[in-house]
Amino acid sequence: MNTVISATNSALGNGSERHSGLILENVSKRFAGLPRQDFAAVANLNLTVQDGEFLVIVGPSGCGKTTTLRLIAGLESPDTGDLQLDGESLAGVAARNRDMAMVFGNHALLPHLTVSENLGFGLMLRKFAKDEIASRVNAAAEMLGLIPLLQSRPPVLSAGECQRVALGRALVRQPRIFLFDEPLSNLDAPMRVQLRAQIAAVHRRSGAMTVYVTHDQAEAMALADRIAVMKDGALQQVSSPLELYRRPANRFVAGFIGSPPMNFFEGTIVQRNGSAVFRGGFEAELGAGGQKLIGQGGERRVTLGLRPEGIIEGSGASFEASVERVETTGLENIIYCSGGGGSFVSRLPAERAIKSGDQLTMQINMNCAHFFDPESGAVLAG
Ligand code: ATP
User: Which residue, by CA, sits nearest to atom 19 of ligand 1?
Assistant: First the structure.
């Protein structure tokens, strides 16, 4: 499906010299009556969405994801800052003129209309010709496997089918930008995975810019070209999924992205026999990077971050741990342990029979180590 050049876009002229895509520049939004007056739902947000990009905004509840999406959609206006689409400010452009289609978790279909009528409803309101509506509805229904359901009404559909109709309703608009707000939140796990694949397919086929909000980092990792991680209204990092996993900018991102999450150990990097050593609940020698962290002769308090795959069984830089709980995925065992001065989670092959109460010798792979400032949480080296 081709992206239709809307009245909004064509009004901008051909603008080939202009930046194409969406830019949020220093955008802030406060709401009256929030418990803390100094608290902004969205604070000084700078974000760019490239043409054709699938950008996922992820973060815990209340971090400002939905507010950001509503600001893009024009359902809220920023207190400060500006949003631009293809180089043109969106200030003063009403939501209905923004050529964006939004999909929510709560699909709100019209129960008395058929699936076909629900799909075409928005186009009908916009006075599209009947033939055009029929052709767009058919194309969307085909793409989403809704052809057999076209004459059914929402009350007889499953939650997953309703959500596919909601997706189709956005698709027929052929918008410049798709906006998704937790579209899978009301579905069971298998349905979530299925619909996730359909959303990815819609994006591949339409090539339309997409901004997708979720609190689920696994969903973000699965779908995104780039992920924007937010906390308390502030953008923490925006990067590709792999980059976020491998090079988190701070402790929050490190702990939020990845499942099971990264382990953290408090300690100090000290000098010993000319090399840098992490000293905490266990001791481990650092490579050349460690030396850079403390300079000659110094020492420094750090938070050491290790992903579950960075703590494995073995000798060397090792410590004793006791297994408190084991979860198996079939492929591997996720083991929750105490040891090394705290508790941590590791993953071992499923063939390694392990049960709670077992004592293990765990080895640190310092090549996988991340170091954070214990106060600010900012990354020191990775
Ligand atoms: P969730 O995942 O729970 O939906 P979120 O990350 O989408 O959270 P927002 O809904 O953007 O977060 O909310 C950010 C903050 O702004 C929260 O503290 C929320 O209570 C507050 N907020 C959002 N909308 C309003 C509003 N209309 N009036 C007052 N406060 C609001």
Answer: 62
Task: State how beta strands 54-58 and 209-214 pair.
Answer: parallel
CA gap 256, 235 in Å, rounded: 13
pLDDT per residue of the chain (382 residues) written in tens, 0 to 9? 333 333 333 333 344 455 789 999 999 999 887 666 667 999 999 999 999 999 999 999 999 999 999 999 999 999 999 999 999 999 999 999 999 999 988 878 999 999 999 999 999 999 999 999 999 999 999 999 999 999 999 999 998 899 999 999 999 999 999 999 999 988 888 889 989 999 999 899 889 999 999 999 999 999 999 999 999 999 999 999 999 999 999 999 999 999 999 999 999 999 888 888 999 999 988 876 777 788 766 889 999 999 999 999 987 668 999 999 999 999 999 999 999 999 999 999 999 899 999 999 999 888 889 999 999 999 996 4
Cβ 74 under 6 angstroms from ligand 1:
no
Q: What does DSSP assign to residue 296?
A: T
Tell whether ligand 1 has an atom less than 6 A from the beta carbon of residue 67.
yes
Give the phi and the psi of residue 157 in degrees, each rounded to 5.
-90, 155
C-alpha R_g of the chain = 25
User: Residue 66 CA: which ligand 1 atom is closest?
Assistant: 7
Task: Identify whether 260 is preceded by a cis peptide bond (ω within 30 of 0).
Answer: yes
With b meaning 16 or more CB within 10 Å and e meaning fewer, what string describes 201-223?
A: ebbeebebbbbbbbbbbebbbbb
SS3 54: strand
| Residue 134 CA: distances (Å) to CA of 140, 143, 174, 364 | 10, 14, 14, 61
Query: Which numbered atom of ligand 1 lies nearest the CA of 39?
Result: 18
Say if ligand 1 is within 6 A of residue 40 CB.
Answer: no
Residue having the nearest C-alpha atom to atom 28 of ligand 1: 31
Structure tokens at 236: 């923490």
Atom of ligand 1 nearest to the CA of 69: 11
Q: Which of 28, 61, 67, 217 to mutate to test the pocket of ligand 1 (most atoms within 8 A of CB)?
A: 67
Q: How far apart are CA 180 and CA 127, in angstroms?
A: 25
Nearest-angstrom CA–CA distance, 78 and 61: 20
